[in-house]
Amino acid sequence: MSKTNSAPTTTNTNNTATKPESKGGTYSAPTTTPSSKNTVLALPGMCLTEGCKARSEKANFCMEHFDWFKEGLVTKEGRRPSDFDKKFFDYTRRLAKKKTA
After folding, report:
1. 14-30 pLDDT, tens per residue?
2. Are 56 and 62 in contact (CB under 8 A)?
3. Burial, 84: exposed, middle or buried (Cβ in 10 Å; 0-12, 13-18, 19+)?
4. Residue 37, CB half-sphere, CA atoms under 13 Å: how many?
């Protein structure tokens, strides 16, 4: 024997339960303005690194800056970290060692 749903069904004819009531004003979505100091604008298909105009190939970076990204020389937004000089020195030293080996 199959059971049927015995809960009473109600129909809403005035449709007030699905729409929130407005209180005289119109709704406008909140707008956010990005900070101009830290905003890096990149065109689609271009490398994200600051000052680079090459087309992106991997993860929105050109191949040179993708290697920099893997080594930690640029962030995923394309900015240089605060300890860039130290990291760049170590990176160039590893590249020189790799070429001689």
Report:
1. 555 555 555 656 766 66
2. yes
3. middle
4. 0
CA–CA distance, 65 with 88 (Å, rounded to integer): 12
Side chain identity at residue 88, one-letter code? F
Distance (Å, rounded) from C-alpha 69 to C-alpha 54?
A: 15
Minimal CA–CA distance to 67: which of 95, 38, 46?
A: 95
Q: What pLDDT was estimated at residue 2?
A: 56
Say if CB 54 and CB 46 are below 8 A apart: yes
46-80 pLDDT per residue, tens: 999 999 999 999 999 999 999 999 999 999 999 99
